[in-house]
Write a structure and sequence with these properties.
There is one protein chain. Helix content is about 30%, strand content about 30%. It contains eight helices and twelve strands. The two termini are about 30 Å apart. About 40% of the residues are buried.
């Protein structure tokens, strides 16, 4: 199992706590949040608010899940920019090889359109299809009992959440429920990019034989990132969105929601799970 390095993930502050009519001064842990700028070939590409730590994994995963690269070998150089004196390392510089097609202006327009909600669901899914993404591994299978055990495994592997209660987790599991890697971040998309980026920078783990569990809800972008990475199954402890369900069904990816205790709901790809009787209910 690979844990994330805490870095400056947690900060400490003094707070006033009111409890049963009495006020107490105490120390409290806060999840750190700082901007990270990703530059590609010298061009500013994106700024995201993230929890410091595993920044290179975050950048690598972002490049893959946003379609800027297809594989690790297209990255020629990946490192923190040299910070000014007294400044934190909040810039990652990436140099791509010549076979990676990089259109900085086009990508900026695409990111703006997505963030402004200016495209409909049909257009969003078609944009994924145009990128040539294929249906994930059809042979991947997970036992239902194994699936029910992994949320507790994820929770136990979230050290920063245990201190702060204020951030998201994303984890990769094998078909038998072995925890492979886990990452935490204040942004759920960043947690997903970090754990996917870890597989890029540490070859040896095949995502086609893994499932991903996220601690929050499964929106369209979470499912899209999992699909782009080649994950056959995405699960969440909360609800998926309607567009996430449409995307998973069109690409024959298994999507599980409300994974809590001994219950879960399958929204797509039930053939990868060992279901008996009517094991799946309605939320």
């Amino acid at each position: 199992m690979v844990m994330g390095r805490p870095g400056r993930s947690v900060e400490v502050t003094t707070v006033q706590e009111w409890r049963e009519g009495a006020v107490h001064q105490k120390l409290d842990y806060l999840v750190a949040e700082e901007p990270l700028e990703i530059r590609v070939n010298g061009n500013p590409l994106s700024v995201t608010m993230r929890t410091p730590g595993n920044d290179l994994e975050l950048a690598a995963g972002f490049l893959l899940t946003e379609g800027i690269i297809r594989e690790r070998e297209q990255i020629a150089h990946l490192a923190h920019a040299t910070p000014e004196a007294g400044r934190p390392k909040n810039v990652v510089e990436v140099t791509l090889k010549d076979d990676a097609e990089f259109d900085s202006e086009g990508l900026k327009r695409n990111f703006f359109a997505a963030s402004s909600c200016g495209i409909c669901g049909k257009a969003s899914i078609e944009a994924v299809r145009v990128r040539g993404i294929k249906a994930p591994n059809p042979a991947f299978r997970v036992d239902s009992e194994v699936l029910c055990r992994i949320p507790e495994t994820l929770r136990a592997a979230q050290p920063v959440f245990g201190k702060t209660g204020g951030l998201h987790g994303a984890a990769l599991f094998s078909a038998v429920g072995e925890l492979i890697a886990v990452r935490e971040d204040v942004g759920r998309h960043n947690a997903v990019d970090k754990v996917i980026g870890w597989t890029l920078l540490n070859p040896g783990t095949s995502l086609k034989d893994c499932l991903m569990l996220v601690s929050g809800r499964a929106g369209f972008e979470i499912v899209q990132k999992a699909l782009v990475a080649g994950l056959p199954m995405a699960a969440s402890v909360s609800a998926p969105s309607s567009l996430a369900v449409q995307l998973a069904r069109q690409f024959r990816q298994t999507l599980v929601g409300f994974l809590r205790g001994s219950r879960f709901v399958v929204y797509a790809g039930e053939e990868r799970l060992s279901l008996t009787n009517s094991a799946v209910g309605v939320p």
